[in-house]
């Protein structure tokens, strides 16, 4: 790929991720769903504190237990839940800020771009609850017209024990 | 605090017993916030009781270990060369450093990172740097092994440990209700824990999390959005007027919906093959009808339960035995929740997949159900810390004195009624008895037998 092409792709990818993050922070969950491919896999495995020799078991594998292991149907349920005034963990709603950084294009195959990024999801609720989740994401963005659809999001949190009452926000 | 409530800075027996009014079902909120009561709980409940450590399937090979807790004491749970599972305090006999800092792993031995003392998988001290030169051979290795749990035993592969040498054997401790509770997990045959324990911390007192597992009253309201999101249909499993409660010695209980007797009678007439066919006609992916052998593990009445067992103090069994949750105390206002998913080894790949899918999304911090529990619990705990709000009684009076215990021909005791708070009252009543007893002899002598009449 020529430099100019690479710069353009980087720009498109970043703008997509920022716009996506802005939708979540603005609580526009329906619109966010609109960015997802029908076959999306949205997955956050469980991470564990292990010794250097046991790093092969740091993350749970696909098909085992996870915090998120969602397809589109489950993400739609999450959004429906967020929209309900009876989702008590989000009423009053959390204030969140999705900071997406260190965006790198890891590969391009056909109409799919694999993107690695770091994130800091800051979430505060009520008067004094503060949660921060930092981690790494591997996203697959699929070309759709002049934009993308999110076809895969694998989220690797840096926390092992989740230091929060819940994870009622989307990553 | 009334005068004389504490004798010499410690709680008197009478003051501890008065913290829960069993006749009215009112709990003193200090039970949910007081630091000195919390310290006493660590001693008199956690260090004394049998604590869940792991399922054997989590440690298939020699040297496999995981770290768990007895109260706030960290323990290493490890399979040694002889195949035995040992429970060892995770603190070096030299100067206290932790031997294991990982949550789980594989070890040949445990070498302390401070000065290098080395312990075998059975806890024996097998190596000390400078033993000859610096210690001049003047250190008795035999006497400096890792401290072991006083007793370790298992039922259906579920390993428990206690720090109390005088605790009754595990099966006596569990009693019929505790055994039935674990039987719910083993009802479909030998099980294994699926890799990955979901862990998170909630700012609540551990007992609020525990009493909530018996609380079928909150389900419709707290979890309304799990229902409206389409994840589950609460009305399909809740059965508010078909509830069964079993209260067991030492605080164990099972509470929740139950199969009506007449329906169970029909099922009892079916072969295991017919039951499998019948289950296919039921709505929901993971609804199961227990096989014949289940009655042997759960009792002829217990087998009807579709509710929630709690193995006192802190092991909850849910989803008909597919999940277990450990509630680990981290101070009066903090609790760590550990979620285990447990499936039969012989389950079909399809059942396994669906069970994992459901378990991944029901409970745990991101679960469509569980998300909404934590804040209720933390706000209740917060109120218990206030001077004025902490002085109000915690109301657990639903149905008090309104029901009777039925004793079956086989001696099983159960209450059949509508939604109620019998098990919560039993939990706190048992809690006062545990707290008031100075040792196992006193607890044995003074704890309430399971009720057999009006409750
Ligand atoms: S503290 Fe463990 S070797 Fe010194
Ligand atoms: Fe709940």
How would you characterize the overall build of this protein?
The complex is a heterodimer of chains A (171) and B (455). Chain A is of the alpha+beta class and 171 residues long. Chain A has a single domain (3-157), classed as Nuclear Transport Factor 2, Chain: A (Roll). In chain A, 23% of the residues lie in helices and 42% in strands. In chain A, strand 4 (112-125) and strand 5 (129-144) form a beta hairpin. Chain B is an alpha+beta fold and 455 residues long. Chain B has 2 domains: 51-154, Rieske [2Fe-2S] iron-sulphur domain (Rieske Iron-sulfur Protein, 3-layer Sandwich), CATH 2.102.10; 176-446, Naphthalene 1,2-dioxygenase Alpha Subunit, Chain A, domain 1 (Alpha-Beta Complex), CATH 3.90.380.10. In chain B, the strands form 6 sheets. In chain B, strands 15, 16, 17, 18, 19, 20, 21, 22, 24 and 25 form a 10-stranded antiparallel beta sheet that branches. In chain B, strands 8-7-6-9 form a 4-stranded antiparallel beta sheet, with no helix packed on it. In chain B, strands 3-4-23 form a 3-stranded antiparallel beta sheet. Chain B has helices at 13-17, 35-46, 170-186, 206-213, 219-222, 224-228, 234-238, 261-268, 272-280, 294-298, 349-362, 373-385, 422-436, 440-446; strands spanning 6-7, 10-11, 20-21, 26-28, 51-55, 64-70, 73-79, 85-89, 104-106, 110-111, 118-119, 125-127, 151-155, 158-162, 191-193, 198-202, 243-247, 253-257, 308-311, 315-318, 323-329, 335-344, 393-395, 406-407, 413-417. The model of chain B has no long low-confidence stretch (mean pLDDT 95). Chain B has 14 helices and 25 strands. Helices cover 28% and strands 23% of the residues of chain B. Classes of the chains: A alpha+beta (171), B alpha+beta (455). Chain A binds chain B through residues 44-46, 48-51, 53-54, 57, 60-61, 63-70, 74, 76-78, 80-81, 84, 86-89, 160-168, and chain B through 101-106, 194-203, 222, 224-226, 228-231, 336, 339, 341, 353, 356-357, 359-361, 364-366, 368, 370-372, 374-376, 378. The complex binds FE2/S2 (inorganic) cluster and fe (ii) ion. FE2/S2 (inorganic) cluster binds at residues 92, 94-95, 97, 112, 114-117 of chain B.
């Amino acid at each position: 790929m020529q430099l100019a092409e690479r710069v353009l792709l980087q720009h498109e990818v970043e703008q997509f991720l920022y716009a996506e993050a802005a939708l979540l922070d603005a609580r526009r969950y329906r619109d966010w769903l609109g960015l997802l491919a029908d076959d999306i896999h949205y997955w956050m495995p469980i991470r564990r504190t292990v010794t250097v020799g046991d790093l092969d078991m740091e993350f749970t594998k696909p098909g085992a237990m996870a915090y998120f292991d969602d397809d589109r149907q489950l993400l739609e349920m999450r959004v429906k839940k967020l929209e309900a005034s009876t989702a008590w963990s989000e009423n009053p709603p959390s204030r969140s800020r999705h900071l997406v950084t260190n965006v790198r294009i890891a590969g391009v195959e056909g109409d799919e771009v694999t993107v690695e990024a770091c994130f800091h999801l800051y979430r505060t609720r009520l008067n004094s609850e503060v949660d921060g989740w930092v981690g790494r994401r591997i996203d697959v963005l699929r070309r759709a017209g002049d934009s993308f659809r999110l076809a895969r999001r694998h989220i690797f949190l840096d926390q092992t024990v989740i230091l929060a009452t819940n994870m009622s926000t989307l990553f | 605090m009334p005068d004389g409530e504490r004798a010499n800075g410690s709680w008197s027996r009478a003051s501890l017993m008065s913290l829960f009014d069993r006749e009215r079902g009112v709990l003193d909120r200090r039970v949910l916030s007081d630091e000195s009561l919390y310290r006493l709980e660590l001693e008199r409940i956690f260090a004394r009781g049998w604590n869940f450590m792991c399922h054997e399937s989590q440690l298939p090979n020699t040297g496999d270990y995981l770290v768990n807790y007895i109260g706030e004491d960290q323990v290493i749970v490890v399979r040694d060369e002889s195949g035995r599972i040992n429970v060892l305090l995770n603190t070096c006999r030299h100067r206290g450093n932790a031997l294991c800092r990982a949550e789980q792993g594989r070890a040949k031995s445990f070498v302390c990172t401070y000065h290098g003392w080395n312990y075998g998988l059975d806890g024996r001290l097998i190596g000390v740097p400078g033993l000859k030169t610096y210690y001049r051979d003047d250190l008795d290795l035999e006497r400096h092994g890792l401290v072991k749990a006083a007793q370790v035993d298992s039922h259906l592969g579920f390993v428990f440990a206690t720090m109390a040498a005088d605790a009754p054997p595990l099966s006596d401790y569990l009693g019929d209700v505790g055994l039935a509770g674990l039987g719910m997990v083993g009802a479909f045959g030998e099980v294994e824990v699926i890799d990955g324990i979901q862990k998170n911390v909630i700012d609540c007192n551990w007992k609020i999390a525990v009493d909530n597992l018996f609380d079928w009253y909150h389900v419709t309201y707290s979890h309304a959005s799990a229902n409206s999101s389409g994840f589950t249909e609460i009305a399909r499993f809740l059965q508010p007027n078909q509830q069964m409660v079993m209260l067991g010695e030492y605080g164990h209980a099972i509470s929740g919906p139950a199969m009506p007797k007449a329906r169970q009678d029909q099922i009892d007439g079916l072969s295991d093959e017919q039951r499998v066919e019948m289950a296919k006609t039921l709505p929901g992916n993971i609804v199961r009808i227990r096989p014949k052998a289940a009655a042997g593990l759960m009792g002829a009445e217990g087998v009807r339960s579709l509710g929630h067992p709690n193995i006192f103090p802190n092991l909850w069994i849910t989803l008909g035995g597919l999940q277990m949750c450990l509630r680990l105390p981290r101070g009066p206002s903090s609790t760590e929740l550990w979620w285990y998913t447990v499936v039969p080894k012989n389950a079909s790949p399809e059942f396994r997949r669906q069970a994992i899918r459901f378990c991944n999304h029901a409970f745990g911090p991101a679960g469509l159900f569980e998300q909404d529990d934590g804040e209720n619990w933390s706000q209740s705990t917060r109120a218990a810390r206030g001077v004025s709000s902490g002085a109000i009684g915690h109301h657990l009076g639903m149905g008090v004195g309104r029901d009777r215990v039925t004793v079956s021909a086989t001696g099983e005791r159960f209450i059949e009624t509508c939604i109620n708070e019998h098990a919560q009252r039993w939990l706190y009543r048992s809690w006062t008895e545990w707290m008031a007893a100075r040792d196992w002899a006193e607890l044995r002598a003074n704890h309430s037998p399971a009720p057999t009449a009006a409750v």
